[in-house]
């Protein structure tokens, strides 16, 4: 359970660092504070965290990847390593969204009284 919280928090902090790089302070603070919603154990909150990670993977990392690769190609600079790194970042973000599934699951141990 703790590793899910850690992975989701790192993914949101990585998104916040990306926003901070472009001097978007409000979005960076918002992205850094979103993992604190994991303390609310409700399925709607979990789905909102998942949606935030998936949308940021598409609209933040995907758009940035295309922009950075096009910029590198225009300068005749190597771009394959950049594309692999950004692909890894997108994969990590999607894995963090997948890890949100286990945040609200109940323990299926032995229960004598229901």
From TrEMBL:
Key words of the record: Membrane, Transmembrane, Transmembrane helix
Listed transmembrane segments: 6-23, 44-64, 79-100
Domain of life: Bacteria
Name under which the protein is recorded: Uncharacterized protein
């Amino acid at each position: 359970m703790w590793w899910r919280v850690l992975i989701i928090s790192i993914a949101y902090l990585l998104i916040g660092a990306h926003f901070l790089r472009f001097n978007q302070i409000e979005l960076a603070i918002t992205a850094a504070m979103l993992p604190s919603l994991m303390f609310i154990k409700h399925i709607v909150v979990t789905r909102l965290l998942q949606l935030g990670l998936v949308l940021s993977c598409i609209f933040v990392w995907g758009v940035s990847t295309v922009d950075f690769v096009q910029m590198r190609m225009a300068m005749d600079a190597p771009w394959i390593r950049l594309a692999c790194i950004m692909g890894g970042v997108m994969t990590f973000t999607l894995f963090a969204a997948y890890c949100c599934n286990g945040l609200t699951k109940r323990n299926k141990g032995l229960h004598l009284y229901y």
